[in-house]
Specification:
This protein has helices at about 50-75, 80-100, 105-130, 135-155, 165-190, 200-230, 235-265. The chain has about 270 residues and is mainly alpha-helical. It has one domain (about 5-265). Pfam families: BaxI_1 (PF12811). InterPro entries: BaxI_1-like. Keywords: Membrane, Transmembrane, Transmembrane helix.
Length: about 270
């Protein structure tokens, strides 16, 4: 299984589930593949339907909690600071638990993570909606369009997920994360670099990050596809749903931020 920049897929079980052996299926054995040595299991293998239904449920929970929180924030019936910080912390803690535990995540854990992220993004969206009505819907549509576009790109083979492309995406993701971390630390020291500002540089950086997040979908889709082909147990479909949700949260946040920069300056 190829590497991925999404930490959600890095602790997946590596094994010949359901008697699967890469040699028998004609898969090339090279440095970009991980050997399969886990014992055979009698658990039902994962299917495309498992991935679709679990992902839909996860996204649905996040969308519902996000919309409710955004509406409550716009109407000023709640203080957005609490949900924003609480959702961020709960989402971060749950993501670490899901990533580093050595067994398949429970549906409750993944759905709670989705709800927390929905509350976090909903609070931010609600605040911005007060100043730029409709920005939330625009961000949702933009995120959905990017997701569908990258799925089509992957399914049609317009862009092949090769080891070279995988390394490029992982490197770009790491570089972006490092750059943003350094910028955050400098901002705490009172040094403004303009990387996350509302000027031309800030807009370019946002577009680049959105592009990197979009290409991460290709790695997510490829990982899910390989898990299905290798006969990974169906319970791990929740892990796929979590990974896709994490990328969607990142992408939505960046698109929302870019829309705010572009429209608040009008």
């Amino acid at each position: 299984m190829r590497s991925t920049s999404n930490p959600a897929f890095r602790n997946l079980p590596q094994g010949g589930y359901a008697g699967f052996q890469p040699q028998a299926q004609g898969y090339q054995q090279g440095p970009e593949y991980i050997g399969y040595s886990a014992p055979v299991t009698n658990e039902r293998p994962m299917t495309v339907d498992d991935v679709v239904t679990k992902t839909a449920a996860t996204l649905g929970v996040g969308l519902v909690t996000g919309i409710i929180t955004a509406i409550a924030t716009v109407s000023q019936s709640i203080n957005p600071f609490g949900p924003m910080i609480g959702g961020l912390i709960v989402g971060l803690v749950l993501s670490l638990v899901i990533i580093f535990r050595r067994k398949a995540p429970s549906p409750a854990l993944v759905l709670t993570y989705a709800a927390a992220e929905g509350v976090f993004l909903g609070a931010i969206t609600g605040v911005l909606e007060r100043y730029v009505p409709g920005i939330g819907l625009q961000a949702i549509m933009g995120t959905g369009l990017v997701f569908i576009t990258m799925l089509i790109v992957y399914k049609t083979g317009a862009v092949k997920v090769t080891p070279r492309l995988t390394k490029w995406i992982i490197g770009a993701t790491g570089a972006a994360a490092g750059l943003l971390l350094i910028n955050l630390l400098l901002s705490w020291m009172g040094i403004q670099t303009g990387l996350r500002g509302s000027g031309p540089l800030g807009i370019v950086i946002s577009l680049v990050i959105i592009g990197i997040a979009a290409f991460n979908f290709l790695l997510d889709f490829d990982q899910a596809d390989q898990m299905i082909r290798s006969g990974t147990p169906a319970k791990w479909a929740w892990y796929v749903a979590f990974g896709l949700m994490a990328t969607l949260v990142w992408l939505y946040f960046e698109i929302l931020r870019l829309l705010w920069i572009l429209q608040s300056s009008d």
